[in-house]
Amino acid sequence: MEKHKQKMSGDALLKISNVDAFYGTFQALWGVSLEVKPGEIVALIGSNASGKSTLINTISGFIHPARGAVEFNGLDISMLDPFQIVTLGISQVPEGRRIFPEMTVSDNLVLGSYNRKARSDKELNLKRVYEHFPILEQRKNQLAKTLSGGEQQMLAIGRGLMSDPTLMLFDEISLGLAPKVTDELYKAVREIRAEGITILLVEQNVRRSLKEADRAYIIKAGRIALGKNAAELREEEIKQAYFGI
Amino acid sequence: METLGDLSRPILMGILLGGLYALIGLGLSMVFGVMKLINVAHGDLMIFSAYFAYALMTTWGIDPILSLTMGIPLWFVLGFAIQKYMMSRAFGISMEAPLIIAFGISLILQSLAQIIWSPYSRGLQAPYALGYISLGITTVPRTYLLSFVAALVVMLLLREFLRRSYLGKAIVAASQDKRGAELVGINTGRVYAFAFAIAMATAAIAGVFFGLTFPFTPTSGFGFLVVAFGVVIIGGLGSMLGTFIGGIVLGLTQTLSGHFLGGSVQMLFVYLIVFVVLAVRPQGIFGR
């Protein structure tokens, strides 16, 4: 299934140029630039508080950059609100999942298709989510809070898929989960990419991110330190970026 | 010794009254559940709806329940506007700012009612609401039964709306995780305005049935803010059944304490129950 409409081959789907972003008076991002091309899996790696989540949330519209631009499909989205950005086709699977605990699994998923563009494809997308995660179909009438951690993460990913995205942002989807569950989640991530959805992921497990991604950017103290093909990133470069040694 | 026959009347009246109390508490619960705001103007907005119906009744002879065809949309729009143009901006300032605005609205409505309708008590009348009706074992005022049925209908409709419609689900979602709601593309600002609007529509309905049941003055709202608060505290948030039971607990408290100890202390016990529940179990008896 060809999801993305590529205007010109080689064009970036997401283009971030020279973005500065602040929390109050604290500057969290300093002149950050990066690109994600259609069909890619791009990993964003860096230590805690390096600005990974800030960047993800700037793309999603929770933080508006003070300077610089965030372009999606050639459209400047840096001043749009989160709900508008979802409608354009960017879906974030957030750290901590943020599912609706007192609602059923199926209601959580249905809400994923809240934006008007996605509502017409609701049934189709629901089927697709249940194919990725059959366990969710078995548990569809259960309250979301009764799911295990791994199942909740599957629900968060499934909910993100329901909005019919072109680009998905994954923020720490393996955090606190067993390796076996993580394998299962990343199998789904690869399937999602195979369907034509472009992926930008933040993952505290560097080895895992480099294994899954085509390209990686290392972010350090709010600045992009390095960006290249994942396979070409050498151990020393990562250590250098992480620890400065 | 009391016999069950003597108690059947206060018990039945307490349950019916509880329906009205649940209806009053419904809007407060909604605004608190979704926006985490205690709308201290809720009681006054409810009473003002009774005055609105009173004005239509005395000026044009419009039936109070029929006047809700104007009252409900008007309160809905009013609620939407209060949230969109006042509260949402105040939320950006601090947690206290919206509370102060609600308090301001409360004072303005009380003063307006005093200026327009005087401090003396008023009441709503309709021919079908007069007198008593037999419910087999005992008779109850028709207004009590009317209010109870109205409360039941409103709560069932609201429950279906919240469960089935996209907007209803979005309201519930925003109350459980605002950030999560924004992540699925919900415009929480708009959803908040709708939640406030719906809460005000229920206040409009509650006001008319309240006015048919009891006489009211410009300051009646505050006492019933406490009752509404009690309903929410006992019933917990987000549970329609809890709200209903909360109303009935308070209704029974009022009629039974009135029956055993006299009418002068009946509201004292209602406030006392609210106080005790707050002290012992602040998350509510059915709260999560």
Key words describing this protein structure:
heterodimer; A: 245 residues; alpha/beta; Rossmann fold; 6-stranded mixed beta sheet; 10 helices; 25% strand; globular; B: 288 residues; mainly alpha; two-stranded antiparallel ribbon; 11 helices; 2 strands
Q: What count of helical segments of chain A does DSSP give?
A: 10
Largest Cβ-defined interface: A-B, 28 and 19 residues
Helix content of chain A: 25-40%
What is the residue-mean pLDDT of chain B, rounded to a whole number?
A: 91
Tell me the strand order in the biggest sheet of chain A: 6-7-8-3-9-10
Task: Name the strands of the widest sheet of chain B in spatial order.
Answer: 1-2
Classify the fold: give the CATH topology of the domain at 10-89 and 167-174 and 197-245 in chain A.
Rossmann fold
- Largest beta sheet of chain A, briefly? 6 strands, mixed
Distance between the termini of chain A: 45 Å
Task: Give the topology string of chain A: H per helix, E per strand.
Answer: EEEHEEHEHHHHHEHEHEEH
How would you summarize this macromolecular structure in one to three sentences?
The complex is a heterodimer of chains A (245) and B (288). Chain A has 10 helices and 10 strands. Chain A has 245 residues and is of the alpha/beta class.
Explain this structure.
The complex is a heterodimer of chains A (245) and B (288). Chain A starts with 13 loop residues before the first strand and ends with a helix. Chain A has a 6-stranded mixed beta sheet with strand order 6-7-8-3-9-10, with helices on both faces. In chain A, strands 2-1-4-5 form a 4-stranded antiparallel beta sheet, covered by helices on one side. Chain A has a domain at 10-89 and 167-174 and 197-245: P-loop containing nucleotide triphosphate hydrolases (Rossmann fold). Chain A has 245 residues and is α/β, with parallel strands linked by helices. Chain A is built from 10 helices and 10 strands. In chain A, helix 3 (105-112) packs parallel to helix 7 (149-162) and helix 5 (122-132) runs antiparallel to helix 7. With 288 residues, chain B is mostly helical. Chain B has one domain (2-110, 128-280). In chain B, 75% of the residues lie in helices and 2% in strands. Chain B is built from 11 helices and 2 strands, in the order ααααββααααααα. In chain B, strands 1-2 form a two-stranded antiparallel ribbon. In chain B, a hairpin with a 4-residue loop joins strand 1 (132-134) and strand 2 (139-141). Chain B is globular. The termini of chain B are far apart. The chains are: A alpha/beta (245), B mainly alpha (288). Chains A and B meet through helix 2, helix 3 and helix 7 of A and helix 6 and helix 7 of B.
